[in-house]
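Moderator note: this is an archived Q&A kept for reference. The question asked for a predicted structure of one protein chain; the sequence and the answer are reproduced below.
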Amino acid sequence: MMRTNLQFFADPNPEPKPNDSNPNPDGKNPKPAGKTYTQDDIGKMMASKAKEVESNLRDDFEKGEKRASMNASEKAQADLEEQRQALKEQQDRLQEKLDEADRKDALSATKTVLTDKHIPAEFAEFISDVKEDVRNNNLDKFTNLFNKAVQEAVEKKLRVINHHRMAVNNLTLL
């Protein structure tokens, strides 16, 4: 399989000038600059692009043939339907952006509440919701569970410390 350096084809004069110094005095060929492609790679890329162009042309041709056979009323109806579809797609894109903004706002609000309650804000993504009532319910449940877990861990640690303190006191009495 032959490897091709595409940069070779982009250079206007690939031949070295007589005044150029040899960058590799050891006589070895330099590695090509940039990515190299095999002839097979190039063929696959060209075939893929050709299929894409052919498909687009075929779609345009079929649409043109269909329009050519329409009367004025049908053409107006088709134009109206295309405009409706374009508006629907635009509306969908806008709604996606609004939904993403709502998610970001909800996450920010959740982080603020957690920070105010001295709970790591990293938990926000697990309990945040765009619906305020759901988010507040999640925050309440999580805060209670988190505080309970922290309290239990502190009490356990205190029991261990007290146990060790008692053991040390018993040893000093002996």
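Archived answer notes: The beta strands are 3-4, 37-38.
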